[in-house]
């Protein structure tokens, strides 16, 4: 009830304050635009138009602040085109004329007035009727004493015009409109706010979305490049050196076969051990690469395989068996594989939990351990690459890992 009342009051403030503001803005912008256009031929009009656009920008900024309360969104301010470097005084003066958003601000200030009038009228009517109806028992006594007065129930042919009939009628009418009040006021606010969002924040929201996509793409490219360099370095420093050493061992064993069979047998035994170690290292390096089981059978079996290979006991809880886009499944798999590797290497944990669940249109992977904690996504740390990889699919990585533990890592990826 408190939340509903707060919502109604915010919407009421928006529609009531918005009408005089819209009226003042309309008068200033129409007058400024007309004066600017009329005097453009003598160059005075350009500064007048620029000043009018700056006035429109001020009213638009105020409207954007109100929109954040009505639409429950953080305020978004568009980027106005700045004057070019080294521009002269006159060029900087008329710079607002070169920004498309400035003209949208002016357009909003002109066409906003009818919407503000409708919203204002609906709000006033649906506040006045409940107040007047519920308060009628108090002031109605005096109204009925006026000679020749007729109340609405009597005009409608309801009852005999007695005080009791009038009280029931007006109180019922007030209660009925009070029930409608939140919906009508909300609708009136949204009617006006929809215009404001389309003209004042629509371009800015699109710009933010483009920036987010560009940053996500750059993060994905960077993450893939870093992962590739790390894989190349690990292969060069590990399995490649082992394979070179293995080839040398086998060559030595070949030479020893004729002269010293026992030494050759020992060399071959050492080579077999080195081969197993190389296979184990290659298997560990391949954890960040999507395996065939992921593409063939999906996330549940792939995560089960990861859990089975982890050196720390893992409690796996997969509550969804659906198939998702390859990019989504690869991102979740990579996060799980890299996190389990970090748990095994650094956490000193005795148990690890993995939960995969779909909540609405979001696929959520939660990994926890009872280790020493201290993990975070700051640049330069292992989890930063996971955060960049998730951003490529509009995902988000959240890490809660105080010193001393426990650690909880949550990866959320849209999957709708």
Which properties best describe this structure?
elongated
Explain the layout of strands and helices.
Blueprint: H1 2-38, H2 45-71, H3 89-93, H4 100-144, H5 152-155, H6 163-237, H7 239-259, H8 261-285, H9 292-297, H10 299-309, E1 314-318, H11 326-347, E2 352-359, E3 362-369, H12 382-391, E4 396-400, E5 407-414
Helix pairs in contact: 1-2, 1-4, 1-6, 2-4, 2-6, 4-6, 6-12, 7-8, 10-11, 11-12
Number of helices: 12
The unreliable regions are: none
* Head-to-tail CA distance between termini: 33 Å
**What's the alpha carbon Rg, rounded to whole Å?**
36 Å
Decide which structural class fits the backbone. Answer: alpha+beta
The counted number of beta strands is 5
Arrangement of strands in the largest sheet: 1-2-3-5-4
Helix content: 55-70%
Strand content: 5-15%
Order of helices and strands: HHHHHHHHHHEHEEHEE
Indicate the overall shape.
elongated
Mean pLDDT: 82
The biggest beta sheet is recorded as: 5 strands, mixed
